[in-house]
Design a protein that fits this description.
The chain has 23 residues and is an all-alpha fold. The protein has 1 helix and no strands.
Length: 23
């Protein structure tokens, strides 16, 4: 994948982690 793809994946992982923490 491209660098942008990696950044998007990292952002999604961070969002999922935040949501998981909030629960």
């Amino acid at each position: 994948g491209t660098i942008k793809d990696s950044l998007l994946k990292n952002n999604l992982l961070k969002l999922e982690y935040k949501i998981f923490e909030d629960k």
